[in-house]
Write a structure and sequence with these properties.
There is one protein chain. This protein is α+β, with helices and mostly antiparallel strands. The protein folds into three domains: about 260 residues, ABC transporter transmembrane region fold; about 120 residues, no CATH class; about 240 residues, P-loop containing nucleotide triphosphate hydrolases (Rossmann fold, 3-Layer(aba) Sandwich), CATH 3.40.50. The protein contains 21 helices and 20 strands. Strands 14-17-18-11-19-20 form a six-stranded mixed β-sheet, with helices on both faces. A hairpin with a 6-residue loop joins strand 4 and strand 5. Helix 3 runs antiparallel to helix 8, helix 6 runs antiparallel to helix 8 and helix 16 crosses helix 18. The longest helix is centred in the first third of the chain and has 51 residues. About 0% of the residues have low confidence.
């Protein structure tokens, strides 16, 4: 009785240990798989978000990127650990029984098995060499179908307008057929080709072991021979599921390799560099109850903000912004952090920044000072009980505070690996607060010039200098945050109107409403039931083209960029909307230097200067009146052609 109890306890002990080991191994495998998935996802997304437009996104269709970020990543997330651990299990479950058989059987079995193992391994390698390209073909065809689908979804109106439904349906069906052919060739043809041959060869191997065992039955014994044959038959029955598992592991590794290709994507230059620390603009928020007690003093239009009776801020010479006061006679040196000592972001901004806006107050040093000097008690209301009053400051670097002077010096630029330059030595200068029109025939390099200014395409020679700073010496984020762009095709995000105008939550509702009013969109926004919280559909499909363009313009009105770029902003809108855009351009950017690529020449006739491009070079430059009066000039010919048309 006692030995039976010990046996039972031993069995339960080993079952318990096996269960614990299984749970620990499974949990460890899951954690390992999740860590790999998270690291791969974060790395790939970082590389994609910093990939250059011309050298990556212009060469890779959307469907290919979608396929790798969805199907391939999902495969890695869900099946990588299961398939790889299963393959390891299959390997040991096959090798250990075979080693046992060869250990107890006569040496003649091992000798006769060598050709069998060689032939089976060669057939499996041939199968593997065939299914790997097939798997790539299948995923590539799936990428083509995804690209076709995304193109149709993004351009459904154009597809229907030109009657291209049948052609695109045929393309989608062909891409889907290619993917299905590749999958079925593996599943129904190559796998059956391998299984039939391995099964036949394994049957002959079983027969060989059985015959050798019969001739050596006296030496081996019936039990040993039975164990050998049982193992061989068990391995034979497991051939197909084992092959399925190993092929699945191979497909996991293929998905991993496809995703890993994006880890080596060429990258844009650094977003931020130490040298541009003084050039960045900042948006800072802090609670008003934590702010220092301030007072305002005004004399002959000169405004000062006092802290403890000493000047902390003073108005700029033009009376539009507040700047730090100079060191007083007692040696007191004011700092921006004195506004709210507990806010570290004010120290990061530096003492050379100016306060160009405080909450809704902007454009007037007096209004900004009055807003800063308000106390928390001034905002006691029902809403302030749920959300304490804040101070939102816009801190502008002194780099572009006095206006933006742009110098383009012998600029040469092109796209990706194409040896031909699109811009071939462009030279011109724009003085601060000037409005300059860029005109020329199609393909002359107008839009490419704007891309070079934003460093979306990197200059190959020459340089772009903004207020004495070469744009190649500063970070891309610092450069692009100092510039504004209104594209020809307005870009809308899926979200509310407020989110589209202020995606980084840097401005107050008062300033957002003021920007909407300036862009002549106030009546439209007020007519919506949710106002600024009205949701915009994908790519702004529930808005007209003109409304989207005006919202893009309102986004720039809110930001007030020192250098504003307009890429044919009025080329595809109706005359009424064009009038609204023109009125906003001339009235809403008093401190901005403006470069406008013009398709409609009448929109730039009131500008200060015009630059005419021809085949990547500056053909004519000067005031609009002087260039238009130039005999047989390109701009004069364009105006005459416009008049005749």
């Amino acid at each position: 009785m006692f030995p039976q109890v010990l046996t039972s306890l031993a069995i339960f002990f080993w079952l318990f240990c096996g269960t614990i080991i299984f749970i620990i191994g499974w949990q460890s495998g899951e954690q390992f798989s999740l860590r790999i998935s998270v690291q791969i996802h974060d790395q790939i997304m970082h590389r994609l978000l910093h990939a250059p437009i011309d050298r990556f996104f212009d060469k890779h269709p959307v469907g290919r990127i979608m396929n790798r970020l969805t199907t391939d990543l999902a495969t890695i997330d869900l099946s990588l650990f299961v398939k790889l651990s299963g393959s390891v299990m299959v390997f040991f479950a096959t090798i250990i029984p075979l080693m046992y058989i060869h250990a107890i059987m006569p040496w003649i079995v091992t000798f006769l098995a060598l050709p069998f193992y060689y032939v089976v391994s060669k057939m499996y390698l041939r199968y593997q060499n065939a299914i790997v390209p097939l798997r790539y073909c299948m995923t590539t065809a799936a990428s083509h179908s995804n690209s076709c689908l995304s193109d149709v979804m993004a351009n459904s109106v154009v597809v229907r307008g030109f009657g291209e439904e049948e052609r695109l349906t045929s393309l989608f069906a062909a891409a889907t057929d290619d993917a299905m052919r590749a999958m079925l060739t593996d599943e129904r043809l190559l796998k059956r080709w391998l299984m039939n041959r391995v099964t036949y060869l394994w049957s002959f191997f079983n027969a060989t072991v059985y015959v050798v065992g019969l001739f050596n039955a006296a030496t081996l014994g019936a039990g040993t021979l039975g164990i050998c044959l049982t193992n061989l038959l068990m391995l034979e029955t497991m051939l197909e599921p084992n092959l399925e598992l190993m092929a699945g592991a191979l497909f996991e590794l293929i998905a991993l390799a496809r995703v890993h290709e994006y880890a080596g994507i060429v990258q844009e230059r650094a977003m931020r560099v130490p040298e541009d620390e003084d050039l960045r603009n900042h948006s800072v928020r802090y609670l008003r109850k934590k702010a220092s007690a301030l007072a305002m003093r005004e004399s002959d239009g000169f405004v000062e903000v006092l802290k403890d009776g000493r000047p902390l801020l003073q108005s700029s010479p033009d009376g539009r912004v507040l700047m730090l006061a100079p060191v007083d006679k007692t040696g007191y040196m004011p700092h921006l952090q004195d506004l709210c000592p507990s806010t570290s972001e004010l120290a990061v901004a530096g003492d050379f920044h100016r306060i160009c806006a405080a909450n809704d107050a902007t454009g007037s040093a007096k209004a900004i000072a009055e807003e800063l000097c308000k106390t928390a008690k001034s905002f006691m209301s029902a809403s302030s009980l749920s959300k304490p009053p804040e101070v939102v400051l816009d801190l502008q670097s002194s780099w572009l505070a006095e206006g933006t002077r742009l110098e383009v010096q012998n600029l040469r630029a092109g796209y990706a690996d194409m040896p031909q330059d699109v811009l071939k030595g462009v030279n011109f200068t724009v003085e601060p607060r000037m409005k300059v029109g860029i005109v020329g025939t199609t393909g002359c390099g107008k839009s490419s010039l704007l891309l070079a200014l934003l460093r979306i395409i990197e200059p190959r020679a020459g340089r772009v200098v903004i207020n004495g700073v070469d744009t190649r010496d500063i970070g891309l984020a610092t450069l692009r945050s100092s510039l504004g762009l209104v594209p020809q095709d307005p870009m809308m995000f899926s979200g509310t109107i407020r989110h589209n105008l202020d995606p980084f939550n840097q401005y107050t509702d008062g300033r957002i409403k003021q920007a909407v009013r300036t862009a002549h969109m106030e009546d439209f926004v007020q007519s919506l039931p949710l106002g600024l919280d009205h949701r915009i559909a994908d790519e702004g499909s529930n808005l007209s083209f003109g409304q989207r363009q005006l919202l893009c313009l309102a986004r720039m009105v809110l930001r007030q960029p020192p250098l504003l770029l307009l890429d044919e902003a009025t080329s595809a809108i109706d005359p009424h909307t064009q009038e609204s855009v023109q009125d906003t351009i001339f009235s809403a950017f008093p401190s901005s230097t403006m470069l406008a690529v013009a398709h409609r020449l009448e929109t730039i006739m009131q500008f200060d200067q015009v630059v005419v491009l021809d085949q990547g070079i500056v053909a004519e430059e000067g005031s609009v009146k002087d260039v238009a009066a130039k005999q047989n000039g390109l701009f004069q010919k364009m105006l005459k052609a416009k008049t005749k048309w």
